[in-house]
Design a protein that fits this description.
alpha+beta; 6 helices; 43% helix; binds adenosine-5'-diphosphate; protein kinase activator activity
């Protein structure tokens, strides 16, 4: 807290009254802390890909450089990967600031989750054949009311994280089941896991787990924040169950078709 005291005096200069001002600075300190976390996360996330792109581009463009076709291709692919990483970062920053400023505009329609999950897993297989994915989807899954594009974003973030935070060959299980009122989707991995004390904070903006292995993995701590905003805008919940060095299960729920709110703009 900040405390200031002042004295009210009469025209003759005699003290008449005292004013004590006590200001709670917790919020200001939190905002200041968030600002400095933002600057350090973003500058690190910008610097690394820029350094890689610049390094590769300048060696490839040297007039005396003699590289074989395989080396040239692998460096160009690395440049492309880093440009994608920058693109994703900028996209997530814009997304997060839109959430803060005006909430999310939703385009709610009926959604066949089983179909969406299968097509996303097929895409993941095509891109990363070494990732092992097991699907556990019952045959009669009820339809949900949801914004397809945004739920795809949530699933993509959870799948990307399951791969990113698995130091060995990623083994992922995507399960989907229905309770009385909701449909629940979960993405499990057998990766590095998350300590109990960090499990609530990882859904906050810019929060990244302090473990060295996690810090060494690229990321700006925005993906789960965006996932939570999307799921909550659908009237659902998102949560994690995890054991350090054993793996994590991220789950989210969506209301079933007949229970879902009418299409709306959520602020
Ligand atoms: P990031 O871009 O840093 O991955 P996220 O918001 O998606 O941002 O995740 C926040 C943090 O939560 C990550 O930095 C990481 O420390 C932790 N995390 C997320 N998913 C997993 C996972 N599947 N396994 C272990 N840690 C995870």
């Amino acid at each position: 807290v900040a405390v200031t005291a002042s004295c009210v005096r009469s025209v003759h200069g005699d003290p008449m009254n005292g004013i004590l001002n006590i200001r709670d600075l917790t919020r200001e300190h939190q905002q200041e802390e968030q600002r400095s976390t933002f600057i350090s996360v973003i500058s690190h996330e910008l610097q690394t890909p820029i350094a890689i792109i610049k390094g590769y581009a300048s060696t490839l463009s040297r007039t005396d450089a003699r590289f074989d076709a395989k080396t040239i291709r692998s460096r160009l692919l690395a440049i492309e990967d880093e440009a994608d990483r920058l693109n994703k970062l900028v996209g997530n920053l814009l997304y997060a600031s839109r959430i803060q400023a005006n909430g999310l505009q939703m385009d709610i329609t009926t959604l066949d989750l089983a179909h969406l999950i299968r097509s996303m897993v097929r895409r993941l297989h095509a891109k990363s054949p070494d990732v092992q994915v097991t699907l556990a989807i019952p045959p009669q899954l009820p339809v949900v009311m949801a914004d397809r594009e945004r739920i795809e974003e949530v699933l993509q973030n959870l799948l990307d994280n399951a791969v990113k935070y698995s130091p060995r060959r990623p083994e992922i299980t995507v399960a989907c089941y229905s309770t009385g009122e909701e449909v629940i989707v979960s993405v499990s991995d057998v990766g590095m896991g998350i300590a109990l004390r960090e499990q609530q904070q990882i859904f906050d903006r810019f929060h990244r787990v302090g473990e060295p292995l996690s810090q060494a993995t690229p990321g700006a701590g925005l993906g789960l924040y965006i996932c939570r905003a999307i799921v909550e805008a659908h009237g659902g919940r998102i949560w994690v169950e995890s054991t350090l060095r054993q793996g994590s299960t991220f789950s989210f729920s969506l209301p079933r078709e007949e229970k879902a709110p009418l299409p709306m703009v959520v602020f």
